[in-house]
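COMPLEX REQUEST
Ligand: GLP
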Amino acid sequence: MNVIIVKNKDEGVKKASSIISKEIKNNPKLVLGLATGSTMIPLYTELRGRNLDFSNVTTINLDEYLGLKENDKNSYHYFMKKYFFNYININKKNIFFPNPQIKKLPKINLQVLGIGVNGHIGFNEPGSKINSKLRKVKLSENTRRINSRFFGLLEKVPKYAYTLGIKEIMQSNKIILLAFGRNKSEVIRKTVKDKISNEVPASLLRKHKNVTLIIDKSAARKLK
Ligand code: GLP
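STATUS: Structure written out below.
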């Protein structure tokens, strides 16, 4: 695991954007795994400004809530359009979201990840196995509580979601994980320093050969 500690979120987002831009320029048909969450918003803003050609790029989102319509303001379909897809020249037929009906997803070349405070990646909650695949998952109460900030009321947060499994994430050639802020420092410590365990799904990434963690000083404060 290659750990890059940057001054602040701004610098982290620029670093991640540069990696992504370079990959797209090297391979215009890149298959890019994408994440949602507040960490990703400045990244998508930065990428939009880089004038990249997405016409042959394929994107695969990590996860989506079950039971929300695509145009629901809290769906990840909506999030992706609002912050990214509406601004780039991606071909709609090259946009994928997990759904168990999909028989075969293209293999991901570069996967972008955020991390939940409980160590989840995508919606692979604590307890997810390294060989878990695309599936329906039950969200932990902790995740529902944290994500209720977007929904207003806890009862409105779906109880289930679809997520790519750890297996599909690990099959990506390259992975970058972004985490900023003090509230991520404990989970970053567990991810990097504690023993590799299903209980902290992000720690499983240490078994991958090409993972770059981009974290700011606040998220890195427990690493010393
Ligand atoms: C959600 C998403 C994850 C994301 C996580 C962190 O639950 N399903 O893919 O990494 O939240 O979100 P944030 O960046 O808002 O902290």
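REMARKS: The mean pLDDT is 97. DSSP finds six helices and ten strands in the chain.
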